[in-house]
Amino acid sequence: MTQQTQQTQQTQEVRQTRRKVIAASFIGNFVEWFDYAAYGYLAVTIAAVFFPSDDPQAGLLMAFGVFAISFMVRPIGGFIWGHLGDKIGRREALSYSILLMTGATFCIALLPGYAVIGIGAPLLLLVLRLVQGFSAAGEYAGASAFLVEYAPANRRGLYAAVVPASTATGLLAGSLMAAGLTSLLSAESLESWGWRLPFLLAAPLGLIGRYIRTKLEDSPAFIEASAASAPEGSPVGSLIKNHWRQLLQASGAVLLNAVGFYVILSYMPTYLSEELGLDATGSYLATTIALLTYIGFIFLTGMLSDRFGRKRVLISASILFVLFTVPAFLLLETGGFLLIILVQIALGAMLALNDGTLPSFLAEMFPTRVRYSGFAVSFNLSNALFGGTAPFIATLLIATSGSVIAPGWYLMAAAVISLVAVASSVETSRKPLG
């Protein structure tokens, strides 16, 4: 075999491995956010099943409260999964996290409602959502680190963009399924068994994702770092001691993603139907169209961040949100169906500038020894405090202020904080991984 043939074969093997890494990362995040989409888009039905009340808004607040509480364990999960990912490897941590996630999701589909076992129903739902929150804490961060460490140096932004694209695809699938169930089933059928169908799908999808991951080797960067010297102490301890500044900057940078993602892409159908009076099918359709365009914008953003740098793109996203979020919500309040779709597409494009760049930005901020931990802790801390609570806070702000544009002000505030955090950080796109 000639040297050229060997090089060609090695190149093909590298490309094949990268495709498997992309597939494994995509499926894992898809399953996770398909579940979150199913819960968010069917929140009104889930509220009726688990939190029956004479006041529909009170039941909805309780359903979103469980959604928010499940995020409270994500920082704990971030510490634990980050520790495991930096100690024993990205592949192992990701393989176990997806197994735990899909098991809990499948069990939700089997839960009896409040009418059957009373208070036990919402309590069991809460327990399973807590398991989901814990397992999800390792998914986004681990997949992003895995992709960045496998990617060519000049395409890390594009490769890492697969992660937010897969989350949006999960939301898209959830939106389509919720729209189909809502339009095809009666309210009684939806409450008795229809809402369970999305959760049942988690098991086969999750097992496929785990199978692919078990067939991969760990990333070259992790293997090289592990071979160079034995790890000393806890990765999280090293992170807090030696990289606390980057940890604070990363947590602030995540804030716009945390609030924006769950308000614009998860809460929006409920907002359109419950607050603006749009019919349920129309709400799902508008969000579905916005999600389709958002996925395309994500990959474009990944390429832009490779060309122009992470900071420039992230700062642009924050400025756009500061200037245009409140006007966008005013248009949603006064516009017709076509205008609502156009506004959602615009909001999705603005969000994609942040979301498509953030995974590579966060992964590059930390050296290989603590990359998983740094990403997981910063990402999950902000998402626990501001992401999972976003639908609840948005609903509460509207209820207390009487203004349906209140979520727009909340988004704008998050953009200001992210702008300060990103502006104070260093550019990472053209630096080699540490």
TrEMBL record:
Similarity comment text for this entry:
Belongs to the major facilitator superfamily. Metabolite:H+ Symporter (MHS) family (TC 2.A.1.6) family.
Summarize the protein's role.
Answer: May be a proton symporter involved in the uptake of osmolytes such as proline and glycine betaine.
InterPro entries in the cross-refs: H+-coupled_symporters, MFS, MFS_dom, MFS_sugar_transport-like, MFS_trans_sf, Sugar_transporter_CS
Q: Which PANTHER family does this UniProt record tie to the protein?
A: ALPHA-KETOGLUTARATE PERMEASE
Q: Per its record, how is this protein called by name? A: Putative proline/betaine transporter
Topology class, membrane: Multi-pass membrane protein
SUPFAM superfamilies, sorted: MFS general substrate transporter
The answer, when asked if Transmembrane helix is one of the entry's keywords, is yes
Q: Does the keyword Transmembrane helix apply?
A: yes
* Residue span(s) of domain Major facilitator superfamily (MFS) profile: 21-430
Q: Which UniProt keywords apply?
A: Cell membrane, Membrane, Symport, Transmembrane, Transmembrane helix, Transport
What GO cellular-component annotations does this UniProt entry give? Answer: plasma membrane
A molecular function annotated in GO for this UniProt entry is: symporter activity
In terms of Pfam families, this protein maps to: MFS_1, Sugar_tr
Localisation per UniProt entry = Cell membrane
Membrane-spanning residues where?
Answer: 21-51, 57-81, 93-117, 123-146, 158-181, 193-212, 247-268, 280-301, 313-330, 336-353, 374-398, 404-426
